[in-house]
Amino acid sequence: MGEKKYWKSFVDLKSKTLSKALKQQEFSYETTQDFHLNQLDDISRRRFLALSAATVAIATTSCTNYRDKGSIVPYNKKPENVLPGKPSYYASTCTACSNHCGILIKTREGRPIKVDGNPDHPLSRGKICARGQASILNLYDPEKIKKPLKKEGEKFTEINWELAFSELLTNLNTASNNGKEIAIVTKPIYSPSLAKLMSEFQKKFPTTKIYSYEFLESYAKFNAWNKIYPNSEIPEYDFSSAKIVVSLESNFLANEGNFVKNIRQFSEKRNVDKLKDFNRLYSIEGDLSLTGANADYRIPLNPACHFEFLATVLNEMLTNNFNRIQNKNFPSKDVLFLVMSHNLEQFSNKTGIDKKIIKTLVDDLLNNQGSSIIVAGDSVQEDVHLLAFLVNEILGNTKVYKQKPKPSIPKSSLDDFVQLTKKIQNGQVGAILTLDCNPVFHFPKDFQIKQAIENVPFSCAFSEDINETTWHSKLILPINHNFESWGDFCDGYSFFSTIQPVIEPIFGTYQKEDVLFGLIEGKLSSNAFHKFLMNFWKEEVYPKSNSGVEFEQFWFGVLHDGVFPHEEQENLSFIPSYNFIYDWRPLAKESDWSLVIKKPYFVGDGKFLNNGWLLELPHPITKVTWDNYLAISENDAKSLNLQNGSIVRIEYNGKSFEAPVFIVPGIAKKTLIIEAGFGRKVVNIIGQNVGFNPVNILSKDDLEKGYILHNINISATGKNYKLASTVEHHSLNDTFIKDLHKERHIIQEGTVDEYKKGKLQIKRSKEHISIIPEIKYSGVKWAMVIDLNKCVGCGACVTACNVENNVPVVGKDQVLRDREMQWIRIDTYFSGTTDNPSLNLQPMLCQHCDDAPCENVCPVVATNHSPDGLNQMIYNRCVGTRYCSNNCPYKVRRFNFYDFRNHFANGYFYKDSLKLLNNPEVTVRSRGVMEKCTFCIQRITEVLFRSLANGRELKGTDVKTACQEACPANAIIFGDMHDKNSELYYWRNHKLGYFVLEELNIKPNVTYIAKLRNKKSKEDV
Amino acid sequence: MSTNFDYTIEPEVVEGQPKLRDINDAIAKPLETKPTWKYFIALGISTTLLLIGAICLGYSFYYGIGLWGNNQPIGWAIPIVNFVFWVGIGHAGTLISAILFLFRQRWRTGISRFAEAMTIFAVITAGLFPLIHTGRPWLAGYLFPLPNQHHLWVNFTSPLIWDVFAVSTYLTVSFVFLYIGLIPDLAMLRDRTQNKIKKLFYSIFSLGWRHSNRHWHHYEMIYLILAGFATPLVLSVHTIVSFDFAVSILPGWHTTIFPPYFVAGAVFSGFAMVQNVLIIIRKVFNLEHIITLDTLEKMNKVMLATGMMVGYSYGMEFFIAWYSGNPLETFVFVNRAIGNYAWAYWIMVSCNVIFTQLFWFKIIRRNIVVMFIIGVLVNVGMWFERFVIVVSTLSRDFLPTSWDYYKPTLVDIGILLGSFGLFFTLVILFIRNLPVVSISEVKAVVKGSQPSHH
Questions:
Q1: B220-241 as b/e: b if 16+ CB within 10 A
Q2: Closest residue in A to B157 (Cα–Cα)
Q3: Could you read off the pLDDT of A254-284 as tens digits, one per residue?
Q4: Tell me, what DSSP letter sits at residue A791?
Q5: Is the dihedral of CA A603, A608, A609, A612 positive or negative?
Q6: How far does the CA of residue B424 sit from the closest CA of chain A (Å)?
Q7: Phi, psi for A461 (deg, rounded to 5)
Q8: Cβ count within 10 A of residue A83
Q9: What is the b/e burial string over A31-51, where b = at least 16 CB atoms within 10 angstroms of the residue's CB?
Q10: DSSP letters of A143-178?
């Protein structure tokens, strides 16, 4: 034997020499032998190629100067806590309205890019509304005032801060020395430290008087409350303990009270797995509000009949069901006397409301004593509020009341403001300071605030941007946005929260507290209030904590958490006084036409009329953007011969305004509804020519009575106005189009009763046979569930998506052309009659279909499918044939017909400061490109990379989309459909789940949970 | 004579018995004389339209296609309508020159050259639209399967890619067909002309043709082969164009009737356009004896037939929508007739189905004025047919909340005018620079030119 033979297998052993030779020489001769770098010629072919390639590379790179492309400044010293590419979150408090929700501000490389709720906050619990979401745009508004402005003659001139400050100080000193009043007009102050600062200010300038107010404040409700429960604070409602909710012209799910909390509490009781706990909402209203749209029973009623309605309900309780009332401690005879004249028969005949519904309502209220609530809306008149409080008292529903945050400085009454203008006329006021508010716009002309500000010797407006008040002031001081400021908030009972700046003031402004503190000290400094605040907390709040830690530690802890709860919960007890019954003076009830002035859904007190995102957010019911309008019923419009957009003139007590009408189904007869807060005259470019201002028709008496005006005069002007709605409106009398959404199973719904008894059939289509092989997905596959029982249609998701995904604002002209860009929209479907429609709201976004029809028609594969089930867009590859959009049955794709950032408002969104707003993780799309919902792929990849780095498996529940994170109702669930333990998996396979247009066999991945209406009997459906 | 008419004898294709020399003269005359002021007016009008279109297009490139009326549900509108319309116009040419050639229809000789040329111009016009209608026309190259360093490839499941191939193939084959047919005529013109520049031009493009027997032998062979080659294309191009719609899932688009329906419609509109333009040409250039009334009548008969096919398709769409029991589809078709675009639908039906019925009457088939008007109406109707298919379908699809109404803007109209401007500019330039009737083919069908036994 020669060489020892090694073998691996029998084949090996028995093989002939060739394979042996091959094994010794693993690579064939040519492969390796030929190529030894050191043996190569000086200029081999390879070397030649390498050299020439290098030459070309050097030549091309060295010929361009990369510095021409802008300067790149690396961190020489890396700021602490800033990791490039990693967001930091800061807890703060939102000041977009007086609810003061807790927020987390997401910053990237030092610039805030997104706001979300602070989960630790006791009221908002991690959620904020559309306004809060969009308020970040105001931070970067390039049209903010940048330098103090001084009025000289008719013109404003820029002056520097020192000059402005000394001017302010001198004038205040003069006023104070002459014994003239210094009036400070402000929004309600909920900040304990600011209240302290104010009292210091009053010490320094003893003639100071503070006037605080809120736009569209319900004075009527306040007065009514004080009549029935003297000397106690007006409460808000805890909807989580109310099984029956009766809403009387209230819109508590959209803009009244802390609606973010209301939505959460209301929706918690709309869980289809907890039918016993399911609440029932009655809505009696003249308007068709979002609350009404979500009601199980909605009764359209002219606002003039609200009192009658409640009185009838009360009468029905007392006369026919007295024994069922558990509360025996009320003067039943006197109460009965009050409502005796309103019997059910009469009321039903007069209004045409089915007696059965009212009987059902009475029955429900009596069956749920202590866990039902009657909520009268903020626009309602005093006597209705009083009656609502009375019924709640009788039924023991005071248990549902919860403390409402109490301003640190009590709000002023309307009389105070009348006094103020009088004092100004008499020359008793030396100076007026308006702190971040706009009284000239907010108060009706009757109050003559404008003249007052003009006539006062010195007026100074603290404001972020120009408005009606700054326009008439003598000095304008630009102040910080909330995100650039220090501050705090206290609800007056149980918790504090903090406001901390997350960015240096972008335009070199000061926060208003700094200026006020500077006035006390005599010199302006930018960090003064910060120290004051810390001192205040050290002295007043820190002792309450009883914690062993140092103050510094405590303070940073609070800043980190954003909230500081402390136990000082007062026990709520409401001791009623029935004296009001004896001097009851009913207000006029007969009315021809009634006008209701309501709070707007998104623009707040008009401050947000400079916010494109909010103006373009479609009205929850009519989808009208960029305007307000007078809502009118179809029959009334017909009788006056009005179309959508016809301008009418409203006259009342010799005052008038003009506004276009919009036909809305379900508006009560002879009722007009308009939202206030629109129609500002002095506003930046965004808010110009937006809407109509109805406020001036009010007088002081009207304000006190409520915001419902009776016996108004309406006349057509013959003029027309274009209202931009994102949807087509069809009459509900058009039988060709009516109820298509139900025929097509886009909307599936039923009643709680049907579902309980197993009678509810959700239509699902059968598995189709396909000639195309099914793609198997392994690992994570993304899907979404939207619970239509919980969704109230508030629009927070739409705004959150806009902010997260850099969705452009297109402007009214483009909405008129139907080119709005929002990636998620809330579809509103009407069914039933035009007088009393029933509504269905449905958030609609890309369904990420498995067999997406958009994908196969794209000629360049710009839209395709990811292995984890996402329908993706490659913007760079898209040539914009729009075929995908045509073929999308949900029409959720959005096309950049222009470079909208440039096209809108003279390139507003290309101004320098607004470039900071964009989310750096999301491409800013160019002109001619298709875009759509991505399921927030940037968030998915972020979590994916994090789990890869940590060596963990990617979990579906770790990812939250922007819409899901924002949804106050928690109606949106996102996750991995293969994760059998996840919430998503459960709901995706729920009995009530269905897919929209499932029969097309495109396998959509957004499950909708069918809406259940909590109707009492089958006939009501 | 009328009692025992012999139908096997074809009527003469060319009226009178012109000498071959006269035919040469008649057809070559526009090429050899100076154009009159009328010609320049016509050219002026068409170039003005072209310029309007060019300006509108320039604006659209600069500002974005937001200048058009397209909106969110209606992603395709007038540009795509124009595309389908012009591709349709381009159908008559190949049909006349290839299919009728194969069927040995001798009457085609008078009109085939113009029809072929018109095909090329119509397809050129049509071919512009898919490129310019995109959001980023400068990236139109992505639509072609060009190898690139990104390893990006086109999507062969998309009908738009099929379009790219179908239309470009059709354009190429039609062009080759036209050119081959031109060679004998170019040679003839070469021999006639005194002008040196023209002579050079004709010499190069006639490829050394010397009317030899061998040349004619090859020529006849290649012409036959090309005719056979072009015939399936007549059917395929508009079939593929109809796939743009039929392959989608939209009710109203997703129907199997589309390919034959589109082809019939295309032939219909193509014949109307050929008839329209030839009526003018034969009048202006005194070619009435070559492009005879008999030929026009035959074209009208084709229009009557294809018009009825189109009408049948309209009816069948409704029937199937009802018969299928698919509520979505039923809705779409009822909506066409009574919905938001009912006006467009009834313009389409009246122009395409109702007015063409007049061609049942011989007196109307042979009345130049009336047939011209009907021809115009047919093209209006066929344009609206595409408008109805594209726009009304998109405007009301699955979710009622995404419905919307489309209104064209001035820029849209400008681009439509521009497409007519481009087409007619090319036509007008053509009739002065190349023989508008195939001289060699006409000579072959003149009475007495065929070999016969004396």
A1: eeebeebbeebbebbbbbbbbb
A2: A856
A3: 988 899 999 999 999 999 998 888 999 999 9
A4: -
A5: negative
A6: 28
A7: -110, 125
A8: 10
A9: eeeeeeeeeeeeeeeeeeeee
A10: TS--S-EEEETTEEEE--HHHHHHHHHHHHHHHHHT
Give me A42's structure tokens: 């000086």
Per DSSP (E only), the strands in B123-220 are: none
For chain A, percent helix, then strand, then coil, each to nearest 5?
35, 20, 45
Q: What's the whole-number mean pLDDT along residues A386-394?
A: 90
- Answer for the pair A835, A861: CB distance below 8 angstroms, yes or no: no
Pairing of strands A429-435, A181-186: parallel
Contact A717, A647 (CB under 8 A): yes
Decide: A373 and A245 in contact? Cβ < 8 Å: yes
Cβ partners under 8 Å of residue A884, min gap 6: A854, A855, A857, A858, A863, A893, A930
What ipTM did this prediction achieve?
0.91
CB contact under 8 Å between A927 and B70, yes or no, is no
Residue A486 tokens read as 């220090």
What's chain A's length in residues?
Answer: 1021
The backbone torsions φ and ψ at residue A1009, rounded to the nearest 5 degrees and listed phi first, read -90, 120
Q: What size, in residues, is chain B?
A: 454
Q: Which residues pair with A651 in a beta bridge?
A: A656, A713
Min Cα–Cα distance to chain B from A763, Å: 16
As a whole number of angstroms, the distance between CA A626 and CA A612 comes to 9
Residues of B in contact with A861 (CB under 8 A): 152-155
**How many whole angstroms separate alpha carbon A417 and alpha carbon A700?**
10
What is the predicted pLDDT for the residue at A39? Answer: 62
- Cα–Cα distance for residue pair A888/A70, rounded to 1 Å: 41
Of A878, A271, A469, nearest in space to B160 by CA: A878
pLDDT at B405 over 70: yes
Nearest to B422 by CA among B138, B162, B118, B214: B118
Taking contacts as CB-CB distances below 8 angstroms, the residues of chain B near A926 are 136
Cβ partners under 8 Å of residue A142, min gap 6: A908, A911, A912, A913, A914
Q: pLDDT tens, A400-439? A: 888 888 888 888 888 898 989 888 888 888 899 999 999 9
Point out the residue among A878, A889, A898 whose CB comes nearest to the CB of B249.
A889
Contacts of B334 (CB under 8 A, 6+ apart): A736, B321
Three-state DSSP class for residue A209: strand
For A831, the enclosing helix (H) or strand (E) is strand A825-832
Among the listed residues A404, A221, A335, the one whose alpha carbon sits nearest the alpha carbon of residue A327: A335
CA of B207, closest CA in chain A: separation in Å?
A: 40
| Euclidean distance between the first and the last CA atom of chain B, given in angstroms as a whole number | 26
The pLDDT of residue A115 is above 70: yes
